[in-house]
Amino acid sequence: MKLLAVDTALGACSAAVTDGEAVLAHRLEMMDRGHAERLAPMVSEVMDESGVGFAALDRLGVTTGPGTFTGQRVGIAFMRGLRIALKRPLVGVTTLECMIAAALLESGLNAAAALHDAKRDEVYCAASLNGSVALPVCLMTFDDALTHLWHMIGAAPLAIAGTAGERARVVWKAMGGTAVATSIAQPDALWVARLAAREPDPAGAPRPLYLREPDAKLPTPPRK
């Protein structure tokens, strides 16, 4: 299955083309801004490098969130356009799923959590244990996230991904657990592709996963 996947939801922009287990082309660049400007050229680069024409793609993949309000929309809007143009299924996966999958592979452990700084002392959090969801994707305070993880996972060795990973590792150790802070700080389109390839064809187009209202609000119209 030839698959093009992208991610723009958090602090990186990435694109990947895969064919089954083979990685045909891959780019990942760290960035807090500029995803909208970089995504189209990056997709063009990986498609050229892969040698796969757009018409030869079997499936598309994109991260749905959680992430920044603008970043999530950039990737989804771009891939929705390709979905319509190519008439190919577009699979959405969460940013935290991608980081957990990468952390499990890097660490070789059976338990992994993604804790990504969401500001305001909150984190986007999710966890997996023995191939099953231990904690679904959620937004909570950092302390509550660690407490929930302890109840779900206990003392099992834990691989931690995300920008709050090192802080979580220190606290987890103080709680009596064993944790490894992995190098996985951002989602990667390569894992979007790998996870999207395993899913059944979706019924429609994926939508952004928002766990928090955007900070910017439209002005309230004056009362008449």
What is this structure's SSE topology?
Blueprint: E1 2-7, E2 12-19, E3 22-30, H1 35-50, E4 59-63, H2 69-86, E5 90-93, H3 95-107, E6 111-117, E7 122-129, E8 132-141, H4 142-153, E9 158-161, H5 165-174, E10 179-181, H6 189-196
Parallel strand pairs: 1-4, 4-5, 6-9, 9-10
Antiparallel strand pairs: 1-2, 2-3, 6-7, 7-8
Helix pairs in contact: 1-2, 3-6
Notes on the protein architecture:
By secondary structure, this protein is α/β, with parallel strands linked by helices. 34% of the residues lie in helices and 29% in strands. It is built from 6 helices and 10 strands, in the order βββαβαβαβββαβαβα. The protein has helices spanning 35-50, 69-86, 95-107, 142-153, 165-174, 189-196, and strands spanning 2-7, 12-19, 22-30, 59-63, 90-93, 111-117, 122-129, 132-141, 158-161, 179-181. The strands form 2 sheets. A 5-stranded mixed beta sheet has the order 3-2-1-4-5, sandwiched between helices. Helix 1 crosses helix 2 (69-86) and helix 3 (95-107) crosses helix 6 (189-196). The longest helix is centred in the middle third of the chain and has 18 residues, at 69-86. The protein is globular. 46% of the residues are buried.
